Amino acid sequence: MSCWMPGCLALSMCRGLAALPITFLERAKDLKTRLGILLHKPELGHKTGSSSKLQLGSRRRDSSREVLEWRESFDQLLKSKSGVNAFHTFLKTEFSEENLDFWLACEDFKKTRSKTKLASKANRIFEEFVQSEAPREVNIDHETREITRKNLSGATSACFNEAQAKTRTLMEKDSYPRFLKSASYQDMTKQATSRGTGKWSHT
């Protein structure tokens, strides 16, 4: 049955298509061509999936290596953001997280460039962590506390150095060894060791 026959359904369809804008028909053809290309190239999706798996495996190996490095030294732990978070969580169980919070506050304080902000930050840190009966008083000796108090009169980026060093030594000698022996860190090292056996190389 051809389109020239009167009353023909095909004629109505032809007229309907003729009424469509040319740009619409061109877009439809272009879409069909693009879909055909995608359908005939499934390897594109496969490559993308493989790449994401490799990246995920690489991140896992890096994080596992990092976890194992925490036991090498206290410095290695403090250099790692996730290590600091894990250590902070452990200190909370011992109700001594103020030591790490004070150390971190001092690290942030040293980056302050404005003299006005330096003075206000110094007073805030002293009142929160250093002065006697402070809300989150750190465990330092009376002499170090008084030296720090005097440093506030002419606050510089180094005014907490001695108190920070004492607190760091306390954490390194006391809390850090317990952290390494804790069940939470032991679990983390077991997971890190099992991940490092080369399982990802087959994914």
Automatic annotation (TrEMBL):
Name the Gene Ontology molecular function terms of this record.
Answer: GTPase activator activity
Q: What is its main location?
A: membrane
Domain RGS residues, every copy: 73-189
* SUPFAM superfamilies with a match to the protein in the record: Regulator of G-protein signaling, RGS
Q: Does the keyword Lipoprotein apply?
A: yes
Q: What is the recorded function of this protein according to its Swiss-Prot or TrEMBL entry?
A: Regulates G protein-coupled receptor signaling cascades. Inhibits signal transduction by increasing the GTPase activity of G protein alpha subunits, thereby driving them into their inactive GDP-bound form. Plays an important role in the phototransduction cascade by regulating the lifetime and effective concentration of activated transducin alpha. May regulate extra and intracellular mitogenic signals.
- This one is known as Regulator of G-protein signaling 16
Specify the species: Edolisoma coerulescens
**Gene name, Swiss-Prot/TrEMBL:** Rgs16
